[in-house]
């Protein structure tokens, strides 16, 4: 996998993925794009949500929505790494089996989400879920 980051101005950069997708990263708060740490947090949420939806669909669950609410703590002093990340999955659907939702979240956190597997080596990770009827 390859990517390129190009300086635009100030603390604003444009990231270009190998697949051709662009993303603005900005070290200014607030800036013209997500900060690099926000991008890492979004990557963790996106990766795990993809897993959860995929696992539930393979289990023939009628998923109509999935959101991940993320909350992270950072070290007070540089480098201001994440020290804890909490993910709360809100899964919406028809007649969703709680056992399958719980298992999907567990599998994502423990086995499939490459972003979380990388981060868990240095960060405390917690996850929870709730089910809503469509």
UniProtKB/TrEMBL annotation:
SUPFAM superfamilies: OsmC-like (SSF82784)
InterPro entries reported for this sequence: KH_dom-like_a/b, OsmC/Ohr_fam, OsmC/Ohrsf
Pfam families: OsmC
Organism superkingdom: Bacteria
Transmembrane segments: none
Protein name: Osmotically inducible protein OsmC
Taxonomic source organism: Oceanisphaera psychrotolerans
């Amino acid at each position: 996998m390859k990517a390129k980051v190009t300086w635009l101005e100030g603390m604003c950069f444009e990231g270009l993925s190998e697949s051709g997708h662009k993303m603005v990263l900005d070290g200014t708060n607030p800036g013209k794009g997500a900060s690099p740490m926000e991008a890492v947090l979004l990557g963790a949420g996106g990766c795990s949500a993809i897993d959860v939806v995929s696992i539930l669909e393979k289990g023939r669950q009628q998923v109509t929505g999935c959101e991940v609410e993320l909350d992270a703590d950072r070290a007070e002093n540089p480098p201001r790494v994440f020290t804890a990340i909490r993910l709360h999955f809100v899964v919406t659907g028809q007649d969703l089996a709680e056992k399958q939702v719980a298992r999907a979240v567990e599998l994502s956190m423990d086995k499939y989400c490459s972003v979380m597997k990388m981060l868990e080596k240095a960060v405390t990770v917690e996850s929870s879920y709730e089910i809503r009827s469509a």
